[in-house]
């Protein structure tokens, strides 16, 4: 696994800046163009792992840029646009785009589609085993392990722990956890979250770990 | 054309003939003509008159019934002026010309209105695309702010901004789909669509609002359909927003499909306040807010109306079932097109 470089080609300064922040927070390496001449050549020279390409650019449109870019590079391209015509969508695919996202895009959806394209085109897989305080979380087998003993997890419990394992030592608020679960197709409410945490604690106890998941009232959980 | 009104129309002429007959009879009688001769003349006169009226009546009736049937078969009746049957009569000719001129004025006016409407629609569409750039900017700004390092109060405010911004986005989308619903064919991309993905996308998109309202949700849609994905996302989005508006304590949304012999039904079910039976048939009407909507003072009565319009264009059946106090089920019926099934 290596750091992924994403190139933003977007002429709206505010969107460009915030997109950069968003992607940097998501641990990507980001570069953004601020002027838009000779795009195909410069994109290829920049050697990114993925290009976010706005369709409406001051000098010509993104589809043509992509078409020219394809002559020299196979870098994955995701089109960003505020137009929602079906013809545009079709155009995007025909001109060699890998995905097509319409504004206003939702941050988690954008990140998920970026991750999906990267997964399809490169070798950027997320870690599949996490470890903290001697407890291992195995994503691919969907279980927790400690000293050779194993406890199977449900999908919901696994996702919940996954979030906690991603930032060990930090409190994750209940709202943040629920939101993370919603982003991962688990649509639960506050009470159900408590139920899941209780079940996880039970499974941890079966492995002989107490107080692994800490609760702080009014703040959230941490491991 | 009926006989009696026809005769009524001709009554002046008839009266004139009768008067003439009377005067002639008197004149002949005074000049010493025989009664039989006078009767014979009058009988002949009457026969000729009868023949004249009969022929005129039949001719006129044929002429007007031809126009009548033209009217019935024309889908744009204002084009009648172009198609009037030929007639040697002066009056027909004059009326024909007037109808023609009047129709032409109507057609010109319609063309002008159509052009204005088209320009307006195009402007609305381009405006919507422009306004989406700042909406995106605000969305990203608020999203980054919400996840950022600032104080809790500021983060909460950013969350609120996110929510309000999403409301703006939805209103803008409604305007876009309203402007487009008239000319669907320009904006169709029918493809195999996973309703599971659509359902999840809609829930994820509204996660802040839904989590804030304590909603739990399930999506179970294994059956794919052939349709235009973004239109279905829009329709389902309206339904979800509607359900949030009228949800009670412990709201639970289920989005699932049922496979039927002649199609797939997508169901969006909630356990909210429901719709009264007397209002159920009217919820898809434009501007209808119902007793629920008025209580909340937030309804515009446009969301479901747009859903119905879009469903009509997409060939999807749209129904609602509800029990007041227990919940509502919105059903989208996707017919299996024989055309696609064969291919």
- Taken together, the total number of domains of chain A comes to 2
Structural shape of chain B: elongated
| Uncertain residue ranges of chain A | none
Determine the mean pLDDT of chain B.
87
CATH third-level topology of the largest domain in chain B:
Heat Shock Protein 90
- Strand arrangement, largest sheet of chain A? 2-1-3-4-5
| Average of the residue pLDDT scores of chain A | 84
Uncertain residue ranges of chain B: none
Task: Describe the structure in your own words.
The complex is a heterodimer of chains A (223) and B (343). With 223 residues, chain A is α/β, with parallel strands linked by helices. Chain A has 8 helices and 12 strands. In chain A, α1 links the parallel β1 and β2. In chain A, α2 packs across α3 and α6 packs across α8. In chain B, the strands form 2 sheets. In chain B, strands 2-4-5-7-6 form a 5-stranded mixed sheet, with helices on one face. By secondary structure, chain B is of the alpha+beta class. Chain B contains 13 helices and 7 strands. Chain B has 2 domains: 104 residues, no CATH class; 152 residues, 2-Layer Sandwich (Heat Shock Protein 90). Classes of the chains: A alpha/beta (223), B alpha+beta (343).
């Amino acid at each position: 696994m290596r750091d992924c470089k994403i190139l933003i080609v977007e002429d709206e300064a505010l969107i460009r800046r915030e997109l950069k922040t968003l992607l940097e927070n998501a641990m990507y390496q980001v570069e953004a163009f601020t002027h838009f001449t000779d795009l195909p050549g410069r994109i290829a020279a920049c050697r990114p792992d993925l290009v976010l390409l706005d369709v409406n650019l001051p000098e010509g449109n993104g589809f043509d840029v992509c078409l020219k870019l394809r002559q020299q590079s196979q870098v994955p391209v995701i089109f960003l646009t505020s137009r929602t015509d079906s013809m545009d969508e079709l155009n995007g695919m025909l001109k060699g785009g890998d995905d097509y996202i319409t504004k206003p895009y939702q941050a988690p959806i954008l990140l998920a589609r970026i991750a999906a394209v990267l997964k399809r085109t490169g070798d950027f897989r997320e870690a599949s085993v996490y470890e903290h305080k001697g407890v291992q979380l195995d994503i691919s087998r969907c279980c927790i392990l400690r000293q050779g003993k194993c406890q199977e997890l449900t999908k919901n419990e696994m996702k919940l722990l996954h979030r906690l394992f991603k930032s060990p030592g930090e409190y994750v608020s209940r709202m943040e956890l629920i939101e993370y679960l919603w982003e991962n197709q688990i649509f639960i409410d506050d009470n159900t979250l408590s139920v899941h945490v209780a079940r996880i604690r039970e499974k941890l106890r079966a492995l002989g770990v107490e107080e692994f998941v800490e609760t702080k009232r009014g703040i959230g959980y941490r491991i | 054309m009926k006989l009696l009104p026809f005769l009524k129309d001709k009554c002046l002429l008839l009266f004139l003939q009768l008067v003439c007959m009377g005067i002639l009879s008197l004149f002949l009688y005074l000049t010493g003509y025989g009664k039989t001769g006078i009767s014979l003349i009058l009988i002949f006169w009457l026969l000729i008159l009868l023949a004249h009226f009969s022929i005129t009546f039949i001719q006129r009736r044929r002429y007007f019934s031809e126009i009548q049937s033209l009217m019935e078969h024309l889908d744009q009746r204002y084009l009648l002026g172009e198609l009037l049957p030929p007639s040697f009569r002066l009056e027909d000719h004059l009326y024909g010309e007037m109808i023609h001129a009047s129709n032409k004025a109507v057609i010109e006016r319609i063309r002008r209105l159509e052009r204005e409407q088209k320009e307006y629609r195009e402007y609305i569409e381009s405006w919507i695309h422009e306004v989406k750039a700042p909406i995106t900017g605000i969305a990203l700004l608020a999203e980054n702010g919400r996840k950022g390092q600032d104080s809790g109060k500021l983060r909460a405010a950013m969350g609120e901004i996110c929510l309000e911004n999403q409301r703006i986005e939805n209103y803008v989308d409604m305007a876009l789909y309203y402007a487009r619903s008239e000319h669907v064919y320009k904006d169709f991309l029918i493809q195999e669509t996973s309703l599971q993905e659509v359902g999840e996308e809609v829930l994820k998109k509204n996660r802040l609002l839904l989590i804030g309202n304590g909603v739990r949700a399930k999506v179970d849609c294994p059956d794919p359909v052939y349709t235009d994905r973004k239109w279905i996302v829009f329709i389902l989005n309206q339904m979800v927003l509607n359900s949030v508006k009228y949800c009670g304590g412990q709201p639970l949304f289920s989005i699932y499909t049922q496979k039927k012999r002649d199609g797939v039904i997508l169901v969006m079910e909630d356990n909210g306040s429901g719709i009264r039976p007397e209002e159920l048939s009217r919820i898809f009407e434009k501007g209808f807010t119902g007793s629920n909507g008025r209580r909340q003072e937030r309804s515009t009565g446009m969301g479901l109306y747009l859903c119905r319009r879009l469903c009509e264009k997409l060939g999807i059946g749209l129904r609602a079932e509800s029990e007041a106090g227990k919940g509502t089920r919105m059903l989208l019926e996707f017919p299996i097109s024989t055309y696609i099934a064969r291919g």
